Every structure is written in C-alpha cells, then in structure tokens.
Amino acid sequence: MNYFIIGDEDAVLGFELAGVSGVAVESADEADAAFNTALEDKNNGIIIITETAADFIREKVDKYLFTAAFPLIVEIPGSGGRSERKDLRALVNEAIGIKL
Q1: 27 Cβ partners below 8 Å, 6+ apart?
Q2: Region class of 81: left (phi > 0), else alpha (psi between -120 and 50), else beta
C-alpha cells in the first residue's frame, strides 16, 4: 500500500523527503488530473491532499471522503497553515444527517 500526496509545492516536497510520491498542483485542472491519476493506481491506499488542492475539486473529494471505502482520503492543512475548517464531529453530523 502506497501513500500519494496532492498539494502545493512545499507540501509535496516535504512528503517526498519522507518517501511519499506526489504531484504539486496550482489549479483545478491540475488537481483533478492528479486526483484521477492517484485513484487509477490501485497501489495507492491513502491519498493525502491539502485543503487548498481539495477545495479546487471539493465535490469529487467529498464523494470519496463520505462514500468510497478505498482509498482513504486524508485532507491536511497546506503550507500556509490551518484554516477555519469544520471539526470532525461537524463533518460526521453533516455526512450522516444526525447530530452527535
């Protein structure tokens, strides 16, 4: 099982130093192409994507976050730091429609 990173140049470089392959993206088209490439490789068990890159293709990322079992999609802050994202409980509540 491999990891794959999609994000800004700094994030991708950092993960590549740890042996994780990936693609740096700067646009929605690049993010979509990188995400499709990552999904096509069945050896990729975990796809790591920065918030900025995920926002380019939010609908597709959310589809895999909430409906697909494999690969696991992990969204992380980019090199710019943490944004004002919903916490895990809020995301689960939104996904299943039940307040926990």
Answers
A1: 56
A2: left
Q: By the 8 A CB rule, do 45 and 72 touch? A: yes
- Would the pTM of this model clear 0.85, i.e. be above it? no
Contacts 24+ apart (CB under 8 A), 79-84: 79/7, 79/8, 79/10, 79/11, 79/14, 79/50, 80/8, 80/52, 83/51
The SS3 of residue 67 is coil
CATH code of the domain in which 62 resides = 3.40.50.10580
Structural domains counted in the chain: 1
Among residues 68, 32, 66, the alpha carbon closest in space to that of 49 is found at 32
The Cβ of residue 91 has, within 10 Å, a number of other Cβ atoms equal to 15
Give per-residue pLDDT as tens, 21-64.
Answer: 999 999 999 999 999 999 999 999 999 999 999 999 999 998 88
- Per-residue pLDDT tens digits for 11-24: 999 999 999 999 99
